[in-house]
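User: Please predict the structure of the protein below. I'd like the answer in structure-token form so I can feed it into my own downstream comparison script.

Assistant: Understood. Taking the following sequence of 148 residues as input:
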Amino acid sequence: MAEHTSSSITIEASPADVMDVIADFARYPEWTGEVKEAEVLEKDDAGRARQVRLLLDAGAIKDDHTLAYTWTGAHEVSWTLVKSQMLRALDGSYRLAPLDGGARTEVTYQLTVDVKIPMLGMIKRKAEKVIIDRALAGLKKRVESTAR
């Protein structure tokens, strides 16, 4: 089993507001530094993205890939890699925990990346950490600027 990297952040908004931003893939290029394009290829019966094509530029990792999303209730979404040019695995999740009666949200982002080219484990973990930290900071900024 591959190792994963995980980090959390507290956002001054409800879990529903946070999940609305997470689920709005078309706007990812506006607030994520790494996602240059996002295209929903397939939706589930609830209208949520089931498969999404992402054009990613995360410095050491540049790729055009498709992810399959699984939505678990209102507070969790996870994804797995369907196809990629450069990646062997890209599995992750966002888990939302309401705080202060739902006025604030703790967001935990977990990510496992495995590339097809040889790369030292510590470099992969560092890349995962950079992706997670940037994503959480971008998510916090985006949610807090739109949830008021």
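That's the full token string. The first helix runs from residue 15 to 23.
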